[in-house]
Amino acid sequence: MATTAETAAKPAPTPFDLVGGRDSVARLVGAFYDLMASDPAYADLRKMHAADLTPMKNSLTGYLTGWLGGPRDWFEENPGKCMVSLHGPLGVTKETAQQWVSAMSKALDIAEIDSALAAAMAQAFTQMASGMIRSD
Ligand code: HEM
Question: Ligand 1 pocket, 25 CB below 6 A?
Fold first, then answer.
């Protein structure tokens, strides 16, 4: 039987573990940008981004990895970077914020993220996205 010390030493799984680790986060981000690039419903959102989405894929994968409780390389490489402030000058509108959340919700489904976790993530993204809206 495990002693109390052994039980206490085993950390609880993080959301990063529950999502399925780095491969799952990369799959989610890949599905998100593929949708953004191919579905005309996200044309306005796509237009805001640079032609080459590769740097964005890497950055969002790194950010979400740390945000979900996994390795924090992105946060160490970007000390003090605030995601909401970073989006301030980008002119996010209600429509483009909705497009971001809609594409991400579909991507959570495509990447087959656990449904309870996907719902919690979608709710958190909705709140973050609404805080990024700066113009009508
Ligand atoms: C509210 C809707 C959003 C819009 C319209 C939007 C749009 C953008 C745009 C245009 C960029 C710059 C892209 C480029 O230079 O090509 C960007 C960067 C980024 N966004 Fe968003 N974004 C939104 C929400 C979010 C959310 C909720 C997150 C995080 C969960 C996020 C994570 C990032 C990251 C990690 C970067 C790259 C930052 C860097 O590497 O410096 N975005 N976003």
Answer: no
Residue 130: CB within 6 Å of ligand 1? no
Please tell me the distance between residue 92's alpha carbon and the centre of ligand 1 in angstroms.
10
Q: Kindly report, residue by residue over 23-77, the tens digit of the pLDDT.
A: 999 999 999 999 999 999 999 999 999 999 999 999 999 999 999 999 999 999 9
Banded model confidence at residue 12, pLDDT cuts 50, 70, 90: very high
Identity of the residue numbered 111: A
CB count in 10 Å sphere of residue 40: 7
59 lines ligand 1 (CB under 6 A): yes
The answer to whether the CB of 48 is under 6 A from ligand 1 is: yes
CATH of 17-131 given 3.40.50.300, 1.10.490.10, 3.40.50.1370, 2.60.40.420: 1.10.490.10
Rounded to the nearest angstrom, the distance between the alpha carbon of 29 and the centre of ligand 1 is: 12
pLDDT in tens, 98-115: 999 999 999 999 999 999
Residue burial 58-87, b: 16+ Cβ < 10 Å; e: rest: eebbbbbbbbbbbeeebeeeeeeeeeeeeb
